[in-house]
Amino acid sequence: MVTTRAASSRAASVEPTAFVPATPSAKRSSKTSATKSSKSSAFTHVPTTATLAWLAISLPLVIWDTGYVLLRPLSMPGGSLHWPIWAPYKLYGEVDHIYGFKAFNAGNGFTSAQGFLNAVETLLYLWYFAAWFFSGKRSSAGIKVLSGRAGARATLIGFSAAIMTLSKTVLYCKYFRDTS
Length: 180
Known about the structure:
By secondary structure, the chain is mainly alpha-helical. 59% of the residues lie in helices and 4% in strands. The chain is built from seven helices and three strands, in the order H-H-E-H-H-H-H-E-E-H. The protein is elongated. Keywords: Membrane, Transmembrane, Transmembrane helix.
């Protein structure tokens, strides 16, 4: 326990209520006025149409790509899972060597690390979307709104996933600039 010099001459223990002001502020004296003011200033979040379009397009593609990367060599040409799901990766692995046998046989871990980050990023995006879709309430305008703590949390999770997307893109571009 930490005490000040003035308090050290007093009893060794300090009651936890000593840190609470003796008189509550006028704002907090009425529960109903605090509740009304907090409801009117509660945080609300509505994803933009662009955000929902981004999720609709990118999530299936990233899940497909992540599956290919994390299931290698089974998802590669000749593997038991290659046909029909990852058949287009045969050509892609010849163009982008990091996805093909060249990097896999060399033991290059960049693609697997990227795949793992894709999985984390995808889970964050799915959590964001599910929070909005299942917990959002329809407003009078007919728009789904996520409010309060849930809205703030979803916004933070969505923003974190977007930062992951940006940072992975920068890392990927830097990696290929340095290896070519």
